[in-house]
Amino acid sequence: MVCRRRGLLVLISWIWMLVGAFLTSVLIFFLVEGSLAIDARSIFGLLYERPYLASYIELVALGGLPLAISLICGDDFGAYGLRKDGALKSLALAVTLALFLLIVRVVNSSGVAYEHFGLSFPLNVIYASLAVIVYGPLEVFFVIWLIVNTDRAIGWDRGIFTPGLLITVVVFGLSHLIL
Question: Are the beta carbons of 164 and 150 closer than 8 angstroms?
Fold first, then answer.
C-alpha cells in the first residue's frame, strides 16, 4: 500500500510544492484574467494587485496534499502534535479574538469601514480567515508532517535534532530563497 511508502509520499509532497504552486498560479491567472497568455511577470503582477489570491496557492501547494494523504492513510494526528485538548484551547482563543475584533468594529463610532486588500466586508474577513489558516496551522502542519514522515522513511525515531528536521528545514528554507 502506498501509505507505507513514506519516503515516496514525502518526495511527492516536495515535488507538488513546486508543481502545485505553478499549476495553481496558472489556474488562478486563467480564472481571473480569462487568458492563457501567461508569463511569470503577469502572474506576479496579478498577485501584487490581489495578494489575497496567494492563499489558494499556499492551500493547494503546501498543506493540502499532506493533509489529504494523512486523512486517506488514517494517520494519527497526535504524531504531528495535533491533539483535541490543544485544538480546543486554540479555537477558544481564536474565537475570543475574533469576537473582540467584531465588537470593536460594531462599536466603531467613526463610521470607517474596515478594508483589507481592497476588499470590503465580508470578503475581507473570509480572505483574512483563509490566510490565517493556510499561513498558520496548515503551513506548520506541512513542515511537521515532512519532518515526521522523513524520519519515518529513514527509520529514525529518537532525538530532537533528527535527520527529518534538518533536511526539512534546509530544503524548506532554500525553497523560500529560490521562490
Answer: yes
Q: DSSP class of residue 161?
A: S
pLDDT tens, 30-57?
A: 998 887 777 878 888 888 888 889 999 9
For residues 40 and 125, give the distance between their C-alpha atoms in angstroms, rounded to a whole number: 29
Runs of H (alpha helix) within the chain? 6-33, 40-49, 54-58, 64-73, 84-107, 123-133, 139-154, 163-178
CA–CA dist 127, 130 (Å, integer):
5
Neighbours of 40 (CB within 10 A): 9
C-alpha span between 9 and 148 (Å, rounded)? 12
